[in-house]
Design brief:
Layout (H helix, E strand, L loop, with lengths): L1 H13 L9 H12 L9 E7 L2 E7 L4 E9 L13 H11 L1 E6 L11 H15 L7 E6 L1 H15 L7 E5 L11 H4 L9 H12 L22 E6 L5 H13 L4 E6 L14 H32 L12
Parallel strand pairs: 3-4, 3-5, 5-6, 6-7, 7-8
Antiparallel strand pairs: 1-2, 2-4
Amino acid sequence: MSGQQRRALDEMLRHAPLDVGGDVAEARAVFHEMMTSIPLPPDVTTAPGHLGGVPVVTVDTPGSDPSRVLLYLHGGAYAIGSAADAAGLAADVSRRCGARAVCVDYRLAPEHPFPAAVEDAVAAYRALLDQAIPADRIAFVGESAGGGLTVATLVAAREAGLPQPASATVFSPWADLTVSGASATGKAHLDPALTPEALRTRARDYLARTPGTEPLASPVLADLTGLPPLLIQVGSHEILLDDAVRLAARAADHDVHVELQVWPQVPHVFQAFAALLDEADEALDSAAAFTRTHWSRAAKAAEGTASDATPNATPDAALQP
């Protein structure tokens, strides 16, 4: 059944009206229509708001723990997509993790080129911390460009002296804006959703005068030392496969706890198709388990630190001979 599902999804994506590298206004409208064509489940609630002056959409599912937050960064090649467009996938992650998701509506290129997206994501994260939500109760999730942005945001947060969250999960991250990975050409005939030409067009929009080798634009080139546990999920039929593999290797080289999951014969951000594809459902469950595990470990570590810091409560009198 899974093979049949994969073939049906591949066919659907190959005939989708979206041209990622085409006219920006048209691509935004088509992408929005695609992402919102299926209504959210009736038990999902969304609420617009702001964090650090940045627009956000909060997504809640039944039983969500309000003390834990998923900071969600949407995809769209830095030029299309929105927090509202990502609500469906964010809700799937929220439901499995038992936590509310906050989707960041970071500014888009070409109107707002690099580093606008990084600045907005850091501002939203800083605002969560300023609301007295401990870093160890926050987890990052990002898909596609939002996956690369997730890692860039963690690096920028580290440089700003902010604490790291409990974990980060990225789906099909676009982590190399030079589009130089071997899979960019080697997997082009298999990828039904993206082309290297489209990514290069959007990279030019986002980078403007910034070189593609800038680490906060292409985190495969960044110093990832000190980042939290990282889960990377990618499909083997993606031109971004090499981005994921290289990002995992980079993280491992810098002593980051990293897990790379390559799902065979599935397309870009296949997790968004859980209603159609068994592998998507399994991947989301795996991502949720990873997130919950590291929340639990962070909580235990915090308890241990608090216990170590507690002074000896034995009265002085009891120490007398």
